Amino acid sequence: MSAAERRKLSVSSGPDCSRRTFLLTVLVGALAAAGCGDKEASPPSDTVPQWLPAAVGDVDAAARIGRAYLEASRGEHNLDTLLVAIDAALAGEPGAAGGRRRGLSALQNAVRADYLRGKSVNVQGWVLSVTEARVYAVLALAADG
Amino acid sequence: MYTDARTLNDGTTVEADVAVVGGGPAGITLARAFAGSGIEVCVIEAGGLQPDPEVQALYQGENAGIEYPLAAMRLRMFGGSSNHWGGYCRPLDPIDFEPRDWVPHSGWPFGIEELAPYYGPANEIVEVAPAEYEDLDYWAQTTGDTLPELATGRMWLRFVHFSPPTRFGEKYGPELQRSRNIRVLLNANVVNIQAAAEGRTVNGFAIRTLNGLNHRVTARYYVVACGGLENARILLLSNDVVPSGLGNQNDLVGRFFMEHPHLGGFGEIVVADLQRLPPIYRDRILVHGHNVKAAFNPSAAFLREQRLLNATFMGGVAGEYHRGGKAGAESEKAAAHADMLMAAQRFLADGAGPINADDPDYLGVWLGMGCACEQAPNPDSRVMLSSERDALGLARIKLDWRLTEQDRYSLLQHMHSLAYEFGALGIGRLVLNVADDSQWPEVVAGGAHHMGTTRMHEDPRQGVVDRNSKVHGVDNLYVAGSSVFPTSGAANPTLTLVALTLRLADHLRSQLQ
Question: How far apart are CA A55 and CA A110, in angstroms?
């Protein structure tokens, strides 16, 4: 990921980091795995977890879907809200604690679990896992600064 | 023996033990069941061996409800509508026979166990034997593929077998022609079921030809087998003794018309890695001389839990996407599909690399989906007689096909289930093209499945025919075909109507003995 892309994904957030403990744990692993060791020691509280872009195949495409989700879910037009919801969905999934690879695995499990349980949203006709849609929404917010 | 009714002397009477109106799958199956026996059978077919526009025009009619192409949905010629049959075969599901408190007027007089012995021979007749409709392990072993089981409990897989399709006239006509005890009367239109004794018995079929001749067929037993629309019409037209129509003393003939509502293009599914979707889930696979394909159906448990109607979904690959692909006429849809494939790639394929190493730009495919759903029995969805007349001077059909919110709601729930199954298995994502606005989309169409208009019920106040397909209150008149289905399920009706006809043949044989 280029510096410009990292800047694009940098979003200010509130001081309450406790709700994002897990995501941030994953973030550290993700950064390490991505060879971004210089960031490991930095407090990541002002950054969107960088494993999220790696969780999708194409950030721009995901952001376009994410914007459509946010259009229909105005109450979630907030990074903290989205991250907390994603955190909650990942909690308890196998692989929830650990590095980037395990974090992605937990997300994939959470998304599949949403489909298993019928926890879906309609995004321009797409029947999507709520967690998946929120991941796309985070990327949309990040991309739009 | 074939006889062209137009060549008989005017006023001819043909005598038989069993007279059958209609030379389609039901009529031909019934006649064949008596081939080589001592029972004389006369099959009365309104058409000839080839299509004839003048004959086909007799099927035109009037619509009072959802638009329905009455003349295009059936064929008036020997072999009947099997001449344009698509060949889809699958038995009804056990739950389809059950009374369900959330489906008004549901419940057959018997369970699937009553028909089970007849489905095997029916498979032979429609040329899909040996048939295995349910066993996933069997199909995994037969295809050599790992077949993922559906995961949510909402749906299960069933396997549709495709008849060649059997054109009953071509396939079985020569056998009937050779048979000494079976006579096929061609170009013979039954214009009245002649009743006696205040409608308690039938003593003849009145026949008229398009060249103006009048004949008569008499028998001990009479069977009406001319399709789910025409069966009702012919009973309603036979009103010289019973003014409301034969068998219509309780105003049930023609009511409860059911189709399998089809919504072509209701949605698409994008799939990134086709290795996750075995061929039999998306293509017809040739096995044992005929094609087979998986269908996605709601499980009985889910239907009970959610109080829904049955449905069938099938899909096939309709297009492929590549990164940077050309924009086409459907570019907006294609762009949305491509976006989803790109966004969800990590959920739908292994690893972060290209899905296809030989084609790094490959994104995946989209599946076109088709559905056919159960329509709840509805007395207001009905066949009536029009004020318009056909070339024989008979009142044409007036069809008022109606669908309800219950039908629509069920289908929409199952569409979501399909999305959940593909999502839970990490195979694909589904986009719906229908709005959840309590309206049936205008594209809804029938599948040429005409059911329910002479429904079967033990109680004459709730059904036109009894459990043996005998018209209530008439001692020697029977109905064959899908018009006797009290509920439609979501399986195409031909296999079941053939099985039911074999059962009727057994009953008539016992009566004749």
Answer: 12
